[in-house]
Design brief:
The protein has 2 domains: 5-190 and 298-336, HUPs (Rossmann fold, 3-Layer(aba) Sandwich); 212-293, Tyrosyl-Transfer RNA Synthetase, CATH 1.10.240.10. Helix content is 56%, strand content 7%. The chain contains 16 helices and 5 strands. It is elongated, with a radius of gyration of 24 Å.
Length: 352
């Protein structure tokens, strides 16, 4: 490979939001000019927490929305390979081979898995969720990904991939690059309710595709300083989601500094602070909305990108899987059996 490869993506469970943007998508936009970029639509990973017939029937529409969101955020279609995970069945074969290179206690130490189960309302962890990092390793290694831009909640998953790649190479020979993790410079974005990270399942997210009116509605309902009962009561800026969003998304930092000063002095109400945040957020999202409108005006473009990318990815994965099987000796084992069977069939049968 002359150009290093990047693998990243999301589960098709709905529209992407500001948490995705600051946690990973902005990083992808910055990096996809530097690397050959594969973007996975991880519908098999979705099944670990969402696996009803209704969930699966929504995959196609959610995949289109997700790809459109990524393009609207600034990823250029000619520089990206989008593919549907379940349409590359060879990834499952690789997952089967890799799952023997990691132990159950090691997977149980991945901190985000229990959180994912809890968010999905699972009292007990499904087998597939425990193996989520192994399938993610198969995703990364099947295209020989060398860099993986992720949010902090997925960093432990990528470390499992690195361990599996090193273990495989030690046992069977150098097949896989050990991928490098590229973390987002921005910490996890708190949700609008102030209760943990922004999440579609928690209903505390501002979607990249939200209209200006919808953004204003959500900002008006945002959690703020609970001890502040009136505008003339000094408020706290630290840990206040409204000001955390101002710091990240308001380009007018002089305005932010003045709002903080007045808020801490009890000279400005939450209504004004939130109104200015809504204005700043909509200004931030306007270029994303404009790009989304351009892509939506080209019917079939996103579907074509997914189909072409899936076919290209499947060809690459077949080649990787062949290399893996050869390195492990699996192809030679069957070849020896087949040759003996052919010699046996060719041998003349002795008369009775």
């Amino acid at each position: 490979m002359s150009v290093a490869r990047m693998l990243t993506g999301d589960r098709p469970t709905g529209r992407l939001h500001l948490g995705h943007l600051v946690g990973s998508i902005a990083n992808r936009v910055r990096l996809h000019h530097r690397y050959e970029s594969f973007f996975i639509i991880a519908d098999l990973h979705m099944l670990t927490t969402k696996n009803t017939r209704e969930d699966i029937e929504r995959v196609a529409d959610n995949a289109r929305e997700m790809v459109t969101d990524v393009l609207a955020a600034g990823v250029e279609p000619q520089r990206a390979t989008f593919y549907l995970q379940s349409a590359v069945p060879e990834v499952g074969d690789l997952n089967t081979l890799l799952q023997n290179l990691v132990t159950v206690p090691r997977l149980e130490r991945v901190p985000s898995l229990k959180e994912m189960a809890r968010d999905a309302g699972k009292e007990e962890m499904p087998y597939g969720l425990l193996g989520y990092p192994v399938l993610q390793a198969a995703d990364i290694l099947c295209v020989k990904g060398q860099v993986v831009p992720v949010g902090r909640d997925n960093a432990a998953h990528v470390e499992v991939t690195r361990e599996i790649a090193r273990r495989f190479n030690h046992l069977y020979g150098e097949v896989f690059p050990v991928p490098e993790l590229i973390s987002s410079p921005t910490p996890t974005l708190v949700g609008t309710d102030g209760r943990g990270k922004m999440s579609k399942s928690r209903g505390n997210a501002i979607a990249l595709a939200d209209s200006p009116a919808e953004v204003r509605r959500k900002v008006r309902g945002m959690y703020t300083d609970p001890n502040r009962v009136r505008a003339d009561v000094p408020g706290s800026v630290a840990g206040n989601p409204v000001f955390a969003y101002h710091d990240l998304f308001n380009a007018d930092q002089a305005e932010v500094a003045e709002l903080k000063r007045r808020y801490q002095a009890g000279q400005v109400g939450d209504v004004e602070v939130k109104e200015k945040l809504a204005t700043a957020l909509n200004r931030y999202l306007d270029p994303i909305r404009e790009r989304r409108a351009r892509y939506e005006a080209d019917p079939g473009l996103v579907d074509q990108l997914i189909v072409e990318g899936t076919e290209r990815t499947r060809a690459q994965v077949r080649q990787t899987l062949l290399e893996v099987r050869r390195a492990m000796g699996l192809t030679s084992a069957y070849s020896r059996i087949r040759r003996r069977a052919e010699r046996s069939r060719a041998r003349p049968v002795a008369p009775a």
